[in-house]
Amino acid sequence: MHTTNKTPARPWAKTRTLTGARVIAFDIDNTIVDIRSTKRRAYRDAFQKLQRYGLPGDASNLADRMLKNARRRGIDAPDLAKTFLYEELGLRDERLAQEAQRLLERFEPARVELFEGVIETLDQLRNRGYRLYAVTDAPLAATHRRLGSNGLTGRFDGIITREDTPRGKATPAPYRHVLEKANIVPGELLSVGDHPVRDVSHAISLGGQGVLAAYGHRPAHDPSSAPHPPTATIGSLRELLALLPSCSQAQAPRVAFA
Ligand SMILES: [Mg+2]
User: Fold this and answer.
1) What is the 3-state secondary structure (H, E, C) of 79-113?
2) Helix, strand or coil, per DSSP, at residue 232
3) Domains of the chain, each with CATH number or no CATH
4) 199 CA → ligand 1 middle, Å
């Protein structure tokens, strides 16, 4: 397991208690999954295998270059391998490109790195009575590659992916979708993620709460530019446990059994 506790939690984060939430919406990339490390390992191993088919160069170096490329073009772009081989390496080989893309996707599930304490934090929050959702801009297939191999898919009551709303987290729409699916009012929603606007401010703009996962935060995201500041900031996912008391789902819709 890998930890990126680069940014310490604000001192008051541990002493505050956030009340009112019944549903917690988690971002995945850079909040649950250390996506940079995950992708880099998958790229490196895919390139290592491709060397048998004549791919030149050092696999680790290629993985670093590919990661930079992926961050520009979109981490789950379906033609990532082809673009990299054609444009960056000058290797115009359709079969090699197809094999590279296949290997990248095949290797990813076994190389997923979760941030420290993810499983136990989710389980404890569930034991405290919260319902848990995953809300991501990644497509459904990529989401299953990240979550399925860790048993995480079954730990969420619902998963909202890129296909569920027209523009994803460019607008608050995914969080409205959570409100509808979970049948809750905005004040019962708490969102957790590394992006100050997409994961935090959007949820607050609807009337919910937003917690900034500062450990996954990239410098390109300036929290001060978000319309709404975070309700709280955490330096590791575990710190949520100090912020969130037990919660009652008494008002949640119940399934009636005859
Ligand atoms: Mg994220």
Assistant:
1) CHHHHHHHHHCCCCCHHHHHHHHHHHHHHCHHHCC
2) strand
3) 11-34+113-243 (3.40.50.1000), 36-111 (1.10.150)
4) 7
What is the spatial distance between Cα 183 and Cα 203, in angstroms, rounded to a whole number? 15
**C-alpha 194 – ligand 1 centre gap (Å):** 5
Apex 168 CA angle, 139 and 114, nearest 5: 50
Cβ–Cβ < 8 Å for 235, 8: yes
pLDDT tens string 164-201: 999 999 999 999 999 999 999 999 999 999 999 999 99
| For range 201-213, the mean pLDDT | 97
CA of 192 to the centre of ligand 1 (A): 9
Q: In the structure, what pLDDT confidence band is assigned to residue 220 with cuts at 50, 70 and 90?
A: low
